[in-house]
Design a protein that fits this description.
Length: 227
């Protein structure tokens, strides 16, 4: 299961992300409501967890705006508001479920699994092919025209993220948060250095460069026939 968590409580966010990953799931975490849309544009998630009260944009407003744009993903709202009218307001905003703080992780996880079973997102393929590039997501190996390319863990994560968004620009900030996490102090210059190393392995030995630098914005992977 792939989950996007929007929670501004640093301690709670760390705990939920850790427990989700410990349970064998993928979890991305943002601390502002106005960062959610960028992540949803960059990737598909089985469930979105929204804290009601967040800086930038409240979880309630995020939910309302997403549903107005016909977002079909599952959404669960987290909040300390326990009045019946608050629950009704949260569900009427477009949330599929509502969980009151404090809560046990086991209850949250059970609700996430129930929502994920009703999710419309397709299962992510184990093998992604882009021209001569072949990415095995199960064993995290990469080959080009049959030649194995040795990548570090970070390099694989960057390539995989770009491949998931083939032909679309992925902003630097999204790459940093997705690959290193919200608490890491990596800078855009550090990211650019990683990209240079990745391109040296991916592009230079072969005829057609795949990774494009979109000046001032981010990076994208060029190609066709992702499967």
């Amino acid at each position: 299961m792939k989950v996007l968590l929007a929670e501004d409580d640093r301690r709670l966010g760390k705990i939920i992300k850790h427990m989700l990953e410990k349970s064998g799931n993928q979890a991305d975490w943002v601390m502002r409501g106005d960062e959610v849309a960028d992540y949803l544009e960059a990737s598909c998630y089985d469930v979105l967890i929204l804290d009601w009260m967040m800086p930038g944009e409240s979880g309630l407003d995020v939910c309302i705006h997403l549903r107005k744009k016909n977002y079909q993903g599952a959404i669960i709202m987290l909040t300390a508001k326990d009045l019946v009218e608050d629950k009704v307001r949260g569900l009427n905003s477009g949330a599929d479920d509502y969980l009151i703080k404090p809560f046990e992780f086991e209850e949250l996880y059970a609700r996430l699994q129930a929502l994920a079973r009703r999710s419309n997102f397709p299962i992510q393929p184990d093998i992604m092919e882009i021209g001569d590039l072949r990415i095995n997501c199960a064993d995290k190996t990469v080959s080009m025209a049959g030649n194995i390319i040795q990548l570090t863990g970070r390099e694989f994560q960057i390539l995989h993220l770009l491949a998931q968004n083939i032909g679309s620009v992925v902003p630097r900030e999204v790459i940093i948060n997705r690959v290193w996490g919200i608490d890491d102090e990596i800078t855009p210059n550090n990211l650019d250095a990683y990209i240079r190393l990745l391109r040296r392995k991916m592009d230079r030995p072969f005829a057609a460069p795949l990774i494009q630098n979109i000046r001032g914005i981010g990076y994208k992977l060029e190609g066709k026939n992702v499967c």
